[in-house]
Write a structure and sequence with these properties.
Oligomer: single chain
Number of helices: 17
Number of strands: 37
Distance between the termini: 49 Å
């Protein structure tokens, strides 16, 4: 049987095909179809199965990563949404927090609120912070509001009442009334999605889920229908932001959980493969056509966060901590009003794409610069599937960058790359050295179609001594999906001092969430022997605003004294100190329900043979820096390079999904798992 992993990117859709029996792994890429991402998934899957001679009936699993929900928010293409909230609180979306990310920028504009004030309706009810009812809800109010919703052609409703995380009864009753009277409405209640305190973040997350829900459902319907037309006997899974897999029914209910879908899969895959290569501290460096995604892996474990923004809107759900910037192969180079060269964040994307791809692009991109410098093959890419127009890339660089700036074509192209690399380096430092991590202890795991093109120079800039490039790095996110488990997070809020009286109720939360997790895993058809649970407590010292995490082993009977000892230790690790004698407040209890998916890691091991001479394709005159000029550089076919043979840069290593640039002042070799391990010896700039 075969398992398929798919990652939908802004420029390409990537596939990994794994034979469960023989362990053979194959890779494939097609151009993305932004208007309907499911089209590229189904078309590419059909082509891939034909190319590798696999029958659709032999497919036992399909998992995919998607940015549909994120794009709906970024591009403001969600559905018309209304909000029902507690009387007196409908303006929370406008008020937000006191945090001002652009405090001194008078030109900064707040993002347009997704629910206009005219579609925010107040329900006369009130629950106190402890869950007690101060004013009962009269569900008859919903009837009058529903007439206004129909008149405004509202398709989706978000419900978020004050303190419903402690007592969801009012939200449940209003939700059920709406479903009774208007079954066609898409409804998100905050107590179903995020029963957690911090009102603004909970409200924002609920609204985003409702805003994206209906159109996400349409996308899922098209995807499911396309998979059926393939005759594959499975329903597709979707990876969500915490690195786990969800079935289609769960994604329909919680589309906001997919906001970092594809990038999360890359981090999971990067952590597994780096660990097998012997590296425990890693920065994942995923560069695609539109963005660069970086994440920190510490001691083999990805780092998680429960709060970030999507298109400047807060989203408070557990997710892998990934920093995203607008820098990729399709990033557009332009001159600003002062004739200074800028790169990104705008991208040519899949349509029209870089000028060199011959699909109607008219602006110079990072990819065009790499073609001009012969770092990328100036004839074809993707194993010959994509023709490259070098002359078109030269013309656009000359006309829009080199000529207007009065500089040499090669220096103009190198300038584009250096600006892109500097942006990528800042992203890496923002998650590492700015948080006290010494980058000299880390390796850079480079993947994505453009990650290996830039990794060595970015590593040189950041002081990272080692670069790891896995096999077919352009398909790493698709590959990571095959290394992910089914999972979903559950949370309970109880803001209270950790005392013997409150501790018993805190422990009962884990029992409640365990039962919920078991029920959810039942719905996911996960057998009992493949189930596991992860638990943690978020707590803080009295008077603090932010929490630190204390791990709790499943089924562990944790005493209050043991918890306080662990909390002090966790606080010292996070902040460098603890406060003996200070009261500790418990804030959130979290449980992750996990359905283990068989992951035959050894199946990814390649057959490594051949020799350096057999791997040599050609010598290409490539430009690395002004001091060296154009120089004759060997170009190798990756699959034919032997393992364990030390080699020196400069060199270029080509494969179907990516090209690895190995600049001067480096050494490299292929390890037993097929990874390229590059040692940075210095800065050859």
């Amino acid at each position: 049987m075969y398992r398929i992993g798919v990652d939908v990117g802004g420029t390409f859709t990537d596939f990994t095909l794994l034979n469960d029996i023989t362990g053979q792994v194959s890779f494939y890429k097609v151009s993305s179809t932004p208007a309907d991402p499911s089209q590229a998934i189904c078309t590419g899957a059909r082509e891939m199965l034909d190319v590798f001679g696999v029958k659709a009936e032999e497919v036992s699993f399909i998992g995919h990563g998607t940015t549909v929900a994120t794009n709906l928010v970024i591009e403001r293409k969600g559905t018309k949404t209304a909000l029902l909230t507690t009387k007196g609180f409908r303006d929370i979306l406008d008020i937000g927090r006191q945090t001002r990310p652009n405090l001194y920028d008078y030109r900064a504009v707040k993002p347009q609120i997704l629910v206009p004030r005219s579609l925010r309706f107040e329900i006369d009810e009130r629950v106190a912070f402890d869950g007690s009812v101060l004013k009962p809800v009269d569900v008859a109010q919903v009837d009058g509001i529903l007439e206004k919703l129909r008149a405004a052609d509202v398709q989706s409703v978000a419900i978020c009442f004050l303190h419903s995380y402690r007592n969801p009864d009012h939200e449940n009753r209003v939700r059920d009334r709406l479903r009774e009277l208007a079954p066609d409405l898409y409804i998100t209640a905050s107590s179903d999605l995020l029963p957690e305190f911090r009102e603004f973040e909970r409200l924002s997350t609920t609204v985003l889920n409702a805003y994206a829900g209906p159109r996400m459902q349409t996308y899922l319907d098209r995807l499911s229908e396309g998979v059926k037309e393939l005759n594959a006997p499975v329903a597709p899974y979707t990876i969500h932001s915490n690195g786990g897999l969800m079935s289609i029914p769960t994604v329909r209910q919680y589309p906001v959980r997919t906001c970092l879908s594809g990038p999360a899969a890359g981090v999971i895959g990067g952590a597994v493969l780096a660990g097998e290569a012997g590296f425990r501290h890693v920065i994942t460096f995923d560069v695609g056509g539109t963005s660069t995604d970086v994440s920190l892996i510490l001691d083999g474990r990805p780092q998680f966060t429960s709060s970030r923004t999507v298109a400047d809107f807060p989203v408070k759900i557990p997710m892998i901590d990934i920093h995203v910037i607008g820098a990729g192969g399709g990033s557009i180079a332009r001159r600003d009003d002062a004739s200074a060269l800028k790169v990104g964040p705008f991208s040519a994307g899949a349509v029209p794409g870089p000028v060199a791809y011959g699909r109607g692009g008219t602006e110079p991109t990072v990819t065009d610069a790499n073609v001009v410098l012969h770092r990328l093959n100036p004839v074809t890419l993707l194993g010959g599937k994509l023709a490259v127009d070098e002359q078109a890339a030269i013309r656009v660089i000359d006309d829009q960058v080199a000529g207007p700036l009065g500089i040499d074509r090669d220096e103009a192209s190198l300038g584009i790359l250096r600006i892109a690399n500097a942006n990528m380096g800042r992203a890496i430092r923002s998650i590492s050295s700015e948080h006290g991590h010494d980058l000299s202890r880390f390796a850079l795991m480079a993947f994505g179609g453009a990650g290996p093109l830039h990794a060595c120079e970015v590593a040189q800039e950041c002081g990272i001594p080692t670069v790891i490039v896995p096999r077919e790095p352009g398909t790493m996110c698709a590959r990571g999906i095959l290394l992910s488990d089914i999972s979903l997070d559950f949370v309970r809020t109880r803001v209270a001092a950790a005392t013997p009286e409150t501790w018993r109720s805190v422990m009962t939360f884990f029992d409640e969430m365990r039962r919920e997790g078991e029920e959810w895993l039942d719905g996911e058809h996960v057998s009992a022997e493949l189930r596991s649970f992860q638990q943690l407590i978020e707590a803080r010292y009295e008077g603090q605003n932010f929490e630190v995490t204390v791990q709790v082993a499943p089924d562990e009977t944790l005493t209050l004294a043991e918890f306080l000892t662990r909390f002090d230790a966790a606080h010292r690790i996070e902040y460098g100190y603890d406060i003996p004698g200070r009261t500790v407040e418990v804030v959130n209890c979290r449980t992750k329900a996990v359905g283990l998916v068989p992951k035959p890691y050894n199946d990814f091991q390649p057959k490594i043979g051949g020799s350096v001479e057999e791997a040599l394709i050609e010598h290409r005159t490539t430009y690395f820096n002004a001091g060296r000029g154009r120089e004759k550089t060997p170009v190798y076919e990756r699959e034919k390079l032997p393992a364990g043979v030390p080699m020196a840069g400069p060199a270029i290593v080509e494969e179907m999904s990516s090209t690895t640039i190995i600049p001067p002042a480096t050494r490299f070799e292929i390890d037993p798992a097929g990874n390229i391990i590059i040692s940075i010896l210095g800065d050859a700039q």
